[in-house]
Design a protein that fits this description.
Blueprint (H helix, E strand, L loop, with lengths): L17 H14 L21 E6 L5 H9 L3 E6 L3 H12 L1 H4 L14 E4 L15 E7 L19 H8 E11 L2 H14 L2 E3 L15 H8 L5 E7 L4 H9 L4
Parallel strand pairs: 1-2, 1-4, 2-3, 4-5
Antiparallel strand pairs: 5-7, 6-7
Helix pairs in contact: 1-3, 5-8
The protein binds S-adenosylmethionine (SAM).
């Protein structure tokens, strides 16, 4: 496994209720990304379908967005990473469909989960294990804002993570960032510009892209009167080795 990095968020919350705990025991081992001891992860082989492309959601929270985009794009493979166990259990409940039916059944709805694999941990642990350019889209939605100045480098958009995101994204892929924290928008734009690795595809937008699926945080923010901002970045083509040397210097 890759180098140990400190994770500053929560891994555990309230005790997971029994139905969800059962889903975790039964389904999580089957849906967890398989990481070989040596060599890179062979993601394409881990889905029941042969995915046309693969997308990643970092920090899927309760999994509402991930479950829904996966349902809307059945030919795409999705990887979702979330260290918060209650969030992982919530994703499984969404995939299970018990939310919609209220039936409390513990059988995963057939067909809905075939295109999602889960990393129930910190995505940075897998950075070095994914092959170059594996993801056609990377979602980073409502990342923890870490508002205090002294915690600024804990923000996911930072000098360590940006070069890794760059390597993992396909040359024609896009990095999709959404937040409703205005200082985070400024921070992200500044860090991305400083890296010279990405360019924004459009000017900063406050109207969601077409067919947008809102996340739980997004809905809560809108209800509280906050305005979402959507930033879409494309790669500038650079020499990879130089890019990753830059990241090593900025390890937390
Ligand atoms: C503010 S929440 C937003 C959750 C969800 N995206 C939403 O919009 O409802 C940020 C999430 O990112 C997760 N997170 C933070 N750092 C992460 C990392 N290194 N790898 C994976 N997930 C991470 C946290 O555990 C948390 O659930």
């Amino acid at each position: 496994m890759a180098e140990m990095l400190r994770f500053f968020g929560r891994r555990k919350g309230k005790p997971i209720r029994s139905g969800r705990a059962e889903l975790m025991d039964k389904w999580l081992p089957k849906l967890t990304v398989k990481v070989p001891v040596k060599g890179k992860i062979k993601l394409e082989k881990q889905f029941k379908i042969i995915p046309e492309s693969i997308e990643l959601e970092i920090g899927f929270g309760g999994g509402e967005h991930l479950a829904e985009v996966a349902r809307l794009q059945p030919k795409t493979g999705f990887v979702g990473a979330e260290p918060f166990q209650n969030g992982v259990a919530s994703l499984l409940a969404h995939l299970n469909g018990s939310h919609e039916t209220g039936s409390g059944e513990l059988k995963l709805t057939k067909g809905r989960v075939d295109n999602i694999r889960i990393w129930p941990g910190d995505i940075r642990e897998l950075f070095d294990k994914f092959p170059d350019g594996i993801f056609k889209r990377i979602y980073l939605l409502y990342p923890d804002p870490w508002p205090k100045k002294r915690h600024a480098e804990r923000r996911f958009i930072n000098n360590y993570n940006i070069p890794h995101l760059y390597r993992l994204l396909a040359d024609d892929g896009e990095l999709m960032l959404a937040t409703d924290v205005a200082p985070y928008v400024d921070w992200a734009l500044e860090k991305m510009a400083e890296s010279s690795l990405f360019q924004q595809t459009k000017k900063t937008i406050h109207i969601p892209p077409k067919n947008w699926v809102p996340t739980r945080y997004e809905k809560k923010g809108i209800a509280a009167g906050r305005t979402p901002t959507y930033l879409i970045f494309k790669k500038k083509i650079k020499k990879m080795k130089k890019v990753l040397d830059g990241s090593k210097k900025n390890r937390l």
